[in-house]
Specification:
four-stranded antiparallel sheet, 4 strands, about 70 residues
Length: about 70
């Protein structure tokens, strides 16, 4: 069960849109930063292959600027 955490940087002005999309994904827990234009994301998948598939889905979101594993 890989559990990974990311900092998610939205395209300027798209933080709420990105938050909404990520919140709908079952494998994701997302928390918006209060003083920065970014989101904290924790993913929980059954295996590394599913984690890679989820990461690709996240990277395809149009309001995403940068996804950083932390």
């Amino acid at each position: 069960m890989p559990i990974k955490s990311y900092l998610v940087h939205p395209i300027s002005g798209k933080k709420e849109e990105l938050f909404s999309v990520l919140k709908k994904m079952d494998e994701c827990e997302v928390v918006p930063a209060k003083n920065q234009d970014l989101l904290a994301l924790v993913t929980d998948t059954p295996n590394e292959q599913q984690e890679q598939i989820l990461k690709e889905r996240i990277e395809a979101i149009s309001s995403l600027k940068l996804l950083s594993l932390v």
